[in-house]
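Quiz preparation item.
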């Protein structure tokens, strides 16, 4: 998910009562809820490709062990520089708050179709929730309203934790609804795909703003395709695009590029649905999730030319 969502979730968790665990708990919750995304920035320092490193160690078991302590250390250091008026930090309460905030990050990221390696460093396996779009304004709206109502209740001397809890609960119900929609879309798509090929992956991607819709992406061993599901037009109807996409993973240029270029290897490690396509006689590596047959080369960041790559180990 985007960092605005992570920040709002951290803030709502604080307004639910976690901010009382320690002075500075509120900024600590927001910081810790975002901290796992540090991986993309520090990856080059360790010679890693940011695309392959993102949503890895800091989003897995390793992150749950290390990131809360890092967040507490950062808050402690800031407190030493600029002591607050709320009294000394309660390190045990601060650590608990940071752990819960860090935990919220990979769980939210898992809900998307981008992928998260939840078991790092013990396993490099990617997990995909296929439930939420990476930026969801409906979640923003729920959480912002919950925060505003919580602040207003506190100013009026009322129970300020309840509005935040209601907003958090509404978000969980919304996620549950999307889980059900995605599961239904996949179940309806599978028998249609089986008429064409044995499905290896069927993804139900949420459409921005129109959360009830799903963009279906499927692939077999050598071909793939797309479709759409809109329960408002028919609860039991999925429409598949008749155009078939060749995956071309046996293209010699892909194997050669993977041997000589580390960026290609990093892309293949990250990619859930790799594919090769040709345009104007040139071969490009991309991911089926971000492929548009009507696009032009260079119109997406998830696009690597395979011809004449410079050697990079």
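Solution:
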């Amino acid at each position: 998910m985007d960092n605005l969502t992570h920040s709002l979730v951290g803030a709502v968790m604080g307004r639910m009562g976690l901010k009382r665990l320690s002075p500075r708990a509120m900024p600590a919750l927001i910081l810790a809820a975002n901290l796992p995304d540090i991986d993309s920035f520090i990856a080059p320092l360790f010679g890693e490709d940011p695309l392959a490193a993102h949503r890895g160690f800091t989003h897995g078991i390793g992150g749950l062990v290390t990131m809360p302590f890092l967040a507490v250390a950062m808050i402690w250091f800031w407190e030493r520089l600029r002591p607050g008026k709320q009294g000394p930090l309660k390190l045990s309460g601060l650590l608990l708050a940071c752990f819960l905030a860090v935990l919220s990050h990979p769980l939210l990221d898992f809900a998307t179709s981008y992928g998260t390696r939840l078991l790092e460093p013990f396993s490099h396996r990617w997990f995909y929730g296929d439930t939420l779009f990476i930026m969801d304004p409906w979640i923003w709206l729920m959480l912002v309203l919950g925060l505003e109502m919580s602040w207003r209740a506190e100013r009026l001397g009322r129970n300020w934790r309840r509005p935040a809890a209601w907003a958090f609960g509404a978000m969980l119900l919304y996620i549950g609804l999307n889980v059900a929609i995605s599961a239904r879309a996949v179940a309806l798509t599978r028998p249609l795909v089986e008429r064409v090929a044995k499905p290896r992956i069927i993804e139900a991607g949420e459409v921005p703003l129109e959360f009830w819709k799903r963009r279906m992406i499927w692939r077999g061993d050598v071909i793939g395709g797309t479709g759409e599901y809109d329960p408002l037009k028919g609860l039991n109807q999925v429409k598949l695009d008749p155009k078939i996409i060749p995956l071309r993973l046996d293209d010699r240029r892909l194997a050669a590029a993977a041997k000589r270029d580390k960026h290609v290897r990093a892309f293949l490690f990250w990619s859930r649905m790799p594919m090769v396509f040709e345009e104007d006689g040139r071969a490009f590596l991309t991911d089926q999730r971000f492929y548009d047959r009507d696009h032009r080369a260079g119109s997406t960041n998830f696009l690597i030319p395979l011809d004449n790559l410079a050697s990079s180990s």
